[in-house]
């Protein structure tokens, strides 16, 4: 972990005696983007800020954490940080890095064992999966990533060389206040500042904007009833949100604080729910089904059938479900009937894709948190 | 690994845990119609195989349940969909690569 005293000039400003230092802890990919906004906050609010670079899922003495959905999943779900304060700061796309004189267009064909460097930690999981079964240099050390001849990294960690856009979902920088932290009040002030147009302008010089999500029509139906469900006995005993009927109807999840929600079903370890959409979902333009999932980008698997008893056809496996939704607490992800070779379906089975061992879980909402299921193309 | 009954509601289940380190690898299956189906997951530490390789998995497994020679159930040829990551012991990332597939295979039997 490294600490950078941002806004050096501001450190000379008077600090109230006994006030705790405001420490921000950000993951490697996001720290390079935060300096100007933190500096501006220090100047305007007269609150010195220090920036630590390290895993945000271990806040230590930090009062504000900045990390990707995958990094903050348990911090937010477990209540270490206040999920109600979570604020998206921007996105960082991935790039593949090659030597300038390399003719390669893809990392698949280059680099010997361990020659391709890739970001470690939860934020790099999808990138590592995209590189397949090969020996990699997996590291969070920014110098190693920036000096590698071949690398798959968030754009902010790319070293010299030729950069190509990579087919890996962009990271999303989420900031949240750490509950009962030493400088919690100042952290809340900083978070409010980061939401201002001035701060957004400074952050926007480094972060990319939110990717656009297609809008659903107003008439697009939601799941009408539950046909069947299964939660492992272990998940039933440890989780709190076990009612399958909470996935029926429009997204309505409410965060009640303290890790407690209303209106969603936690799917536990590999649990699932099968619903009758009350209409026929058809393969149309773009994706056909939208799943609303309440916590970060927990993965979802979806199957479809024309019969409540199946057989169910897999549409897609372990899709990160974290696209931001307009007008709903929950995030979402979408699925295409065509990816399973289907023209239509009425019954959808939504399964947890996080598949985290139940006995090792430390929240009452383990597994993907299902809020609602919507047909985008239907008749 | 140890297998125990895992409840009956809303469907009958079976839980399979890694002996000695039960939190590190856990499988939760529906156990109905002479078949097992469910999720197999490991913690971030992974589970060390007898071959000295550490595995980190996120899998949905399924397979027909047959009667073994000792009368106990076994899966002789099952399929797993999902992610298997590999590393050396004492590494905390899948440095030896990750395999994502819909047709991993497995067997599960008493010994």
Can you tell me the overall shape of chain A?
A: globular
The assigned structural class of chain B equals mainly beta
**Which percent band covers the strand fraction of chain A?**
25-35%
Quaternary class? heterodimer
Mean pLDDT across every amino acid position of chain A: 92
Number of domain units of chain B: 1
* Count of alpha/pi helices of chain B: 0
Helicity level of chain B, as a percent range? under 10%
The CATH architecture designation of the largest domain in chain A is Sandwich
Unreliable spans of chain A:
6-15
Decide which structural class fits the backbone of chain A.
Answer: alpha+beta
Main pleated-sheet profile of chain B: 9 strands, antiparallel
Q: Would you tell me the overall average pLDDT of chain B?
A: 93
How many domain modules of chain A? 3
Give the topology string of chain A: H per helix, E per strand. EEHEEHEEEHEHEEEHHEHEEEEEEEEEE
CATH class of the largest domain in chain A: Mainly Beta
Question: Strands of the largest sheet of chain A, in order across it?
Answer: 1-3-2-4-11-5
């Amino acid at each position: 972990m490294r600490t950078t005293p941002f806004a050096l000039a501001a450190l000379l400003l008077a600090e109230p005696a006994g006030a705790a230092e405001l420490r921000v802890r950000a993951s490697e990919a996001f720290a390079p983007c935060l300096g100007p906004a933190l500096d501006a906050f220090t100047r305007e609010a007269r609150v010195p800020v220090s920036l630590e670079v390290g895993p945000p899922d271990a806040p230590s003495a930090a009062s504000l954490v900045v990390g990707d959905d995958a990094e903050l999943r348990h911090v937010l779900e477990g209540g270490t940080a206040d999920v109600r304060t979570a604020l998206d700061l921007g996105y960082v796309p991935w790039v593949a890095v090659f030597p300038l004189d390399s003719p390669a267009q893809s990392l698949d064909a280059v680099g010997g064992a361990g020659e391709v460097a890739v970001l470690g930690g939860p934020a790099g999981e999808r990138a590592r999966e995209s590189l397949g079964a090969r020996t990699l240099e997996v590291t969070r050390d920014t110098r190693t990533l920036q000096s590698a001849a071949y690398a798959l990294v968030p754009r902010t960690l790319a070293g010299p060389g030729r950069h190509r856009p990579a087919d890996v979902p962009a990271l999303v920088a989420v900031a949240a206040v750490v509950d009962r932290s030493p400088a919690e009040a100042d952290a809340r002030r900083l978070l409010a500042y980061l939401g201002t147009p001035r701060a957004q302008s400074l952050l926007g010089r480094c972060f990319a904007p939110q990717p656009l999500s297609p809008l659903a029509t107003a008439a697009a139906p939601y799941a009408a009833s539950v046909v069947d469900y299964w939660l492992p006995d272990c998940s039933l005993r440890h989780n709190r949100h076990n009612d399958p009927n909470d996935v029926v109807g429009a997204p309505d999840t409410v965060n009640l604080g303290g890790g407690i929600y209303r209106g969603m079903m936690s799917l536990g370890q590999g649990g699932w729910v099968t619903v009758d959409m009350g209409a026929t979902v058809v393969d149309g333009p773009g994706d056909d089904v939208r799943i609303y999932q309440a916590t970060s980008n927990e993965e979802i698997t979806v199957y479809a059938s024309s019969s409540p008893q199946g057989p169910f056809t897999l549409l897609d496996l372990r899709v990160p479900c974290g696209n931001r939704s307009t007008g709903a607490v929950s995030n979402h992800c979408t699925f295409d009937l065509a990816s399973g070779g289907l023209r239509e379906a009425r019954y959808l089975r939504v399964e947890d894709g996080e598949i985290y061992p139940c006995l090792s879980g430390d929240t009452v909402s383990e597994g993907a948190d299902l809020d609602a299921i919507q047909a985008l193309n239907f008749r | 690994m140890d297998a125990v009954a895992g409840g009956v509601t809303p469907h009958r289940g079976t839980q399979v845990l890694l002996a000695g380190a039960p939190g590190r690898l856990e499988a939760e299956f529906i156990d109905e119609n002479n078949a097992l189906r469910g999720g197999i997951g490991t913690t971030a530490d992974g589970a060390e195989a007898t071959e000295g390789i550490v595995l980190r998995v996120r899998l949905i497994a399924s397979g027909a349940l047959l009667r073994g020679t000792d009368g106990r159930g076994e899966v002789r040829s099952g399929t797993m969909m999902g992610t298997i990551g590999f590393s050396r012991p004492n590494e905390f990332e899948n440095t030896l690569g990750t395999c994502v597939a819909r047709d991993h295979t497995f067997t599960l039997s008493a010994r």
